[in-house]
Design goal:
This protein is an alpha+beta fold. The protein has helices at residues 2-17, 68-85, 106-116, 149-160, 172-175, 230-240, 316-341, 346-350, 353-370, 380-411, 416-425, 428-449, 473-496, 507-530, 536-565, 572-601, 607-641, 646-651, and strands spanning 29-32, 36-42, 45-48, 63-66, 95-101, 140-144, 166-167, 178-181, 184-187, 198-206, 209-219, 224-226, 254-258, 267-271, 276-277, 287-288, 294-295, 304-305, 307-309, 453-457, 463-469. Helices cover 51% and strands 15% of the residues. It is elongated, with a radius of gyration of 56 Å.
Amino acid sequence: MALLIILITCFMIILATSQPCQTPDDFVAATSPGHIIIGGLFAIHEKMLSSEDYPRRPQIQKCVGFEISVFLQTLAMIHSIEMINNSTLLSGVKLGYEIYDTCTEVTVAMAATLRFLSKFNCSKETVEFKCDYSSYMPRVKAVIGSGYSEITMAVSRMLNLQLMPQVGFLLGVLKNVTFTDGGNSFHFDAHGDLNTGYDVVLWKEINGHMTVTKMAEYDLQNDVFIIPDQETKNEFRNLKQIQSKCSKECSPGQMKKTTRSQHICCYECENCPENYYSNQTDMPHCLLCNNETHWAPVRSTVCFEKEVEYLNWNDSLAILLLILSLLGIIFVLVVGIIFTRNLNTPVVKSSGGLRICYVILLCHFLNFASTSFFIGEPQDFTCKTRQTLFGVSFTLCISCILTKSLKILLAFSFDPKLQKFLKCLYKPILIIFTCTSIQVVICTLWLIFAAPTVEVNVSLPRVIILECEEGSILAFGTMLGYIAILAFICFIFAFKGRKLPENYNEAKFITFGMLIYFIAWITFIPIYATTFGKYVPAVEIIVILISNYGILCCTFFPKCYVIICKQDINTKSAFLKMIYSYSSHSVSSIAMSHASLDSMNGNVTMTNLSSSGKSATWQKSKDLQAQAFAHTCRENATSVSKTLPRKRISSI
């Protein structure tokens, strides 16, 4: 007892002679200066007094229950530090200390830890908060204590922020502790865990009251359950079938979705959306398929490879279009045969002759044949050929029809000024060559600078579309626009000659053919712009067939009808009679219109002058009629005389 009094007296002397503490009066501490400060946390008191029910301000309460054993540990730390300072272990370096009483309270220990973490050589005790404490210099370099695990863990978490070491007395010794309780021996393993195992208890709610019943004990060493009786054993077996889960497991093709409940382990199962999949149970999220090459339906467990699609030869629509194209080619051949066998008839000759007809029929043949390049797997060659072949051949066809319209207008026009202009303009070979050459230049520039190529379209969710990318929409539009301009000019010329003799005049039918062409391609533009997928080429095939059939039928079918069904009007005499009738009617109409105009402008006092003018006008009209009739007859008679027998001509 005397020794204890001496030790307490020495401790009080140390507290008095050491550096004055800068802490509140109620915060017990023992400090000593030095180059390196070591902190100490000891539960010198057993507990703290409880605070008032309504404290006026935060404060550290009084500590009670002095622990002599812990106090002796504090003195041992102070003695050890002084022994080191008095020795030669650290020459020129003095150790200091700061020791705080935690009063077995986490709050007090945390307050002392904050003082340990305050900045070194700072006039104010402040703790700087940084993202990186590797270069931070706290006042205390290491901490010894505290005595209880609860306090030690709380303090260690704060010290770890600045990588400050912490040393306990209470773990190496604990591993070697063995004690008994109720005949059972207990000890700690290498990890500091107790070898007690655990009890299996059953919680039951009966009549609103919760009861807890011990079912079994788990032997940690032998890894077995110890069950007291058979009845409990049967009930325990039934408990094994109960799932301690608030959610069913999600099957492949589903993913877990956390529910808004108080239990974070609870979730719902949600199907994977399209193009996503899951191949395991309870997957937290679905996996995305490669959208360019694969796809997946809703609730899929795998990704499926996309099918490659294009307008196949086996497709029903493609077969129908091919049949229509083949039928058009047959019509072209039949028309060619009919015109060849009736080469010397007026109907064939009024169509521009066999040469022009053959060229037009060849163009129709190529147009029908070009549709085959729109079907089948796209290749670079087919993509480049199909538009070029259609554009050039259709332009050549329209150019030939343009010359025919111009010739019809020239043959049956009785206006001298218009005839002179049309004669200068009518150069068939030059017109055809020039119009076609311009389209050839357009297509050549298109192929050189922005040629159509094969494109792999992966934008659709389940298929890959192989299609021809036109290369340049401007070039494609220029090609179609140029054909439209030629067709419009042809339409104007044909429209002006629509009232000429019907049996030998195809201007009216050319007008209808051009109208069909315009309607087809005007309809094509919005449909082509809004259609996607493998049937885009089919849209263009349909438009080509409609315009080609329209022009072919309007140009050749009426003449074939005359050749086959009305052979009596397909003779030279009938042709000359029709020309004479039309010429007489036209000249008489001109004369009557002039006479009517003269009578309106004349008056009583100028009767002789009016009669003289009327006679002059009538004479001029008669001359014009004779001149036109002679020209027309000479044109047709000359062409017919070259082919018909001499006897046939004399009889006519």
